[in-house]
Amino acid sequence: MTLYLNETIKAKIKSNFDSKIEKLKNEHSIELSQFQAEINALKTKENFKFTKLHEKRLEIMEITYKLINEVLIQLNQYVSPLKRIPNGKTFLDNDNDLQKSFLKKHREYTNHYMNHRFYYDLETKKLKN
What we know:
Radius of gyration: 36 Å
Helix content: over 70%
Largest sheet: none
Distance between the termini: 93 Å
Order of helices and strands: HHH
């Protein structure tokens, strides 16, 4: 009879603890699900910001590449030993015009770079300096 009472009490205690453990597991599972949802929402938000930043960087890099090419074209025309001199211009007038064109394009590139240098990574900035 004592054995029967001991086993009955053990079973009731075990059943009581098992139900409490299941209840705690369910509560923690719900909390974990909510936490995971919050983490996913934050990741999505950060990924959106990251994507927008890279889109902007690509736009800036495209404009920079175009300006660098334009500066090189103007520089090549300015320093070329065989310059075509338009009718009605002297060599010096033509040379001054080519120099002004080059300097204007170079200023345009420099202004663009200075206004957008935030978007360049450190390796690109090292190349500039």
